[in-house]
């Protein structure tokens, strides 16, 4: 890739929360960012806030054909895809229940978005990322993947597994695949949904006693997609203030 070509980043769930923060950070680095979200109106507002390097796209990551068509369209218009952030996910307080309690229909929907969404977007983007210098995928798992007995944690444990399997599978195409496992990060969704008791409980598990912030996850993402991490693939990095440390 020559320096004259603009690098292209696709961020799922890009309308708000981490996705929005990732969009700002990658656009600030001069990348073209495409914010894919179910909520097109919110994604458009975010893209307008970021500026000319950002654009919004409507899409449901659990729709295989739609993700195939979207990645193809992006690659056609911009020449390829360099970075994919598989960030879209269902993580409401409601999803944080045992499977029997959540029920099979809601569990299935969450698995479709949190697990199948990662699979569909990765496979759809792969041909347009293959062979591009510095091509990298970052999946967003969760601290809940470490020892959770809840449906949500199971979905995020699957994301850790997919990170290893896709690191092997896409390695021959020169695509690195890693994941981040955020701890409790005070996005708007978390502030609105989690009770102060639950927040205090998680904070009590942390070694670092301050609140987790979106910028903590952004910093780790920027490192994972940078040349500094070119020898790193298949890893899930916990960014949880030490709340999930285990040997
Ligand atoms: N905030 C935290 O503390 C925390 C901790 C660990 C992991 N995570 C994970 O980080 C990711 C982002 O979290 P957040 O707090 O920014 O979430 P958020 O709820 O603020 O934003 C998620 C975005 O994803 C979009 N989305 C949902 N389903 C979608 C679908 N099927 N297709 C396309 N877009 C869809 C939503 O419209 C929304 O804009 C999620 O995968 C979540 O599980 C968050």
Automatic annotation (TrEMBL):
SUPFAM superfamilies: NAD(P)-binding Rossmann-fold domains. InterPro entries: NAD(P)-bd_dom_sf (IPR036291), Sc_DH/Rdtase_CS (IPR020904), SDR_fam (IPR002347). Belongs to the short-chain dehydrogenases/reductases (SDR) family. This is Short-chain type dehydrogenase/reductase y4lA. PANTHER family: BLL7886 PROTEIN, SHORT-CHAIN DEHYDROGENASES/REDUCTASES FAMILY MEMBER. PROSITE patterns: ADH_SHORT. Gene3D superfamilies: NAD(P)-binding Rossmann-like Domain (3.40.50.720). One of its GO terms (molecular function) is oxidoreductase activity, acting on the CH-OH group of donors, NAD or NADP as acceptor. Pfam families: adh_short_C2 (PF13561). One of its GO terms (biological process) is fatty acid elongation.
């Amino acid at each position: 890739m020559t320096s004259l070509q603009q690098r292209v980043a696709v961020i799922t769930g890009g309308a708000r929360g981490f996705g929005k923060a990732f969009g700002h950070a990658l656009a600030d680095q001069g990348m073209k960012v495409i914010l894919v979200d179910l909520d097109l109106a919110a994604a458009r507002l975010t893209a307008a806030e970021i500026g000319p390097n950002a654009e919004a796209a409507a899409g449901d990551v659990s729709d295989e054909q739609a993700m195939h068509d979207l990645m193809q369209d992006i690659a056609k218009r911009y020449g390829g895809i360099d970075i994919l952030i598989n960030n879209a996910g269902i993580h409401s307080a409601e999803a944080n229940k045992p499977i029997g309690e959540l029920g099979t229909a809601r569990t299935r929907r969450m698995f479709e978005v949190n697990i199948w969404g990662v699979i569909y977007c990765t496979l759809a983007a792969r041909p347009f990322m293959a062979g591009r210098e510095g091509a990298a995928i970052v999946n967003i798992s969760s601290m809940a993947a470490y020892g959770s007995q809840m449906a949500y944690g199971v979905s995020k444990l699957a994301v850790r597994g997919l990170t290893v399997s896709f690191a092997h599978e896409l390695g021959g195409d020169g695509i690195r695949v890693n994941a981040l496992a955020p701890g409790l990060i005070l996005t708007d969704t978390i502030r609105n949904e989690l009770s102060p008791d639950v927040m205090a409980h998680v904070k009590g598990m942390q070694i670092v006693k301050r609140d987790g912030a979106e910028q903590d996850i952004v910093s780790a993402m920027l490192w994972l997609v940078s040349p500094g991490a070119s020898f790193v693939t298949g890893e899930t990095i916990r960014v949880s203030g030490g709340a999930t440390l285990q040997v």
